[in-house]
Amino acid sequence: MSxxxxxxxxKGGVGKTTTSASFSTGLALRxxxxxxxxxxxxLRNLDLIMGCERRVVFDIINVINGDAALSRxxxxxxxxxxLYVLPASQTRDKDALTLDGVERILNxxxxxxxxxxxxxxxxxxxxxxxxxxxxxxxxxxxxxEVSSVRDSDRILGILAAKxxxxxxxxxxxxxxLLVTRYSPQRVASGxxxxxxxxxxxxxxxxIGVIPESEIIxxxxxxxxxAIHMDKSDVSDAYKDVVARFMGEERPMxxxxxxxxxxxxxxxxxx
Amino acid sequence: xxxxxxxxxxxxxNVPLMxxxxxxxxxxQFKSQLLQKLAQAPDFFSRTPVALGLGGIxxxxxxxxxxxxxxxxxxxxxxxxxxxxxxATQREAAAKVGLGAxxxxxxxxxRPEESPPPVAASIAPLSQQDELPGLEASPPSSQEDTxxxxxxxxxxxxLLIDKPVRxxxxxxxxxxxxxxxxxxxxxxxxxxxxxxxxxxxxxxxALAGANGNTQARIYVHSLxxxxxxxxxxxxxxxxGIPEALRAKPTQIFLSGERLxxxxxxx
Lengths: 270, 266
Prior knowledge:
Number of helices of chain A: 13
Number of strands of chain A: 8
Order of helices and strands of chain A: EHEHHHEEHEHEHHEHHEHHH
Distance between the termini of chain A: 42 Å
Largest sheet of chain B: 6 strands, mixed
CATH topology of the largest domain in chain B: Pectate Lyase C-like
Helix content of chain B: 10-25%
Distance between the termini of chain B: 58 Å
CATH architecture of the largest domain in chain B: 3 Solenoid
Strand order of the largest sheet of chain B: 5-7-9-11-14-15
CATH class of the largest domain in chain B: Mainly Beta
Number of domains of chain B: 2
Largest interface: A-B, 11 and 13 residues
Strand order of the largest sheet of chain A: 3-4-2-5-1-6-7-8
Number of strands of chain B: 15
Oligomer: heterodimer
Shape of chain B: elongated
Order of helices and strands of chain B: EHEHEHEEEEEEEEEEEE
Number of helices of chain B: 3
Strand content of chain B: 25-35%
Structural class of chain A: alpha/beta
Helix content of chain A: 40-55%
Structural class of chain B: alpha/beta
Radius of gyration of chain B: 27 Å
């Protein structure tokens, strides 16, 4: 049975696209046929993060409007065989996204893909709503910071009330908390919320913690999802998330500050 | 000149009233059946005010000898106080002998098939008579001694919310009390016409007695609210919630025009 997973947050800039890229890559690396879809019509970023921006010919709006078949719009990832990308449109209006159109696309994708990852735009308007409407599971990406937590709470409310599953009275969307840009030192100094603080408000199960890292910037610049940066903390953290999603037990890492040696600090450790 | 103390007040009252529905224009039959019933319970009526229900015969257009009826009624302990329903002619005739037209609450007339011996079934004990119109319910007065007519009492079961109420969500318990057994996050809104109970931290807003019910109260397990309100009177906590109540079990009620917050001893 294909699963639709939405990566959402409410707040902008917390790491949805970064997560969509690495999470879908992680699923594909484990042998699952995976497609990741960019729902941010007009402000598309997923293709940049995935490194396929020069291969975009047709996008999701073209497919909805019938200008192109789905197979022609899907872009095969260059790093990973099982992974495909469906980009958003850069020039069109987000109103071109329709629930009907998206439903048709998802139904077609379900015929050949195990996992469909929907990269949601920020906000609670049409793009975000369409991205979450058909979800079976949700990764709620949250920074350890008050406005991000507040916005995530808002999104959770909408997921619980207005998703297709909610409206039809089926089993609710399975919610997972993903804390990103976590800095244990700043939590210790009281500048940032701890994971416990976040969970006290959001009250959903934690699927992982991604540490703040410069690797992310390097990954975006090189058009290669962070999970490919082997041995880095971010890569390990995303791999843990994928493992937990698949049902494996993994102890939660990156929650505490590791004391760095003098030399490491001298040469720019964090 | 000093004002006199008022010698009278006019108020509306809702009182239960027994209704004797007349379902035939044949007064001989009416009297004889009623007499049979009364033979079994001679003191059933002892100077009881009774209204005459004419709905069952309104369509006949025949008028009755109301003088005859009221004499008969008085002889058997019934004090005729007025008529309910009936055609215009009938009401007119009744008025001539001093029986005013009482307002009907609903347009229901006793249906013949509901009552074999037409008269007897209508003399049901007061508590079972569900067609008891009583005097018309006017806007509820502030007196506690008024009894509302049965149709006006609407009981709505308490609305129970057992999942977190999230930012931006609004819950409204219309005509009912509200109980929430999960966290109410900042930016969420609880509204109830009745009371509000939150058996978890309340971080959002709670507005009880939303329909103007000044008796409504708010009970919280942990007071961390942004705003509380009863019957439109509200309080925010600009300087923060007082130390004694912050994150503690609290009861909130209206006293005059001020909200009072008291610790709830658990």
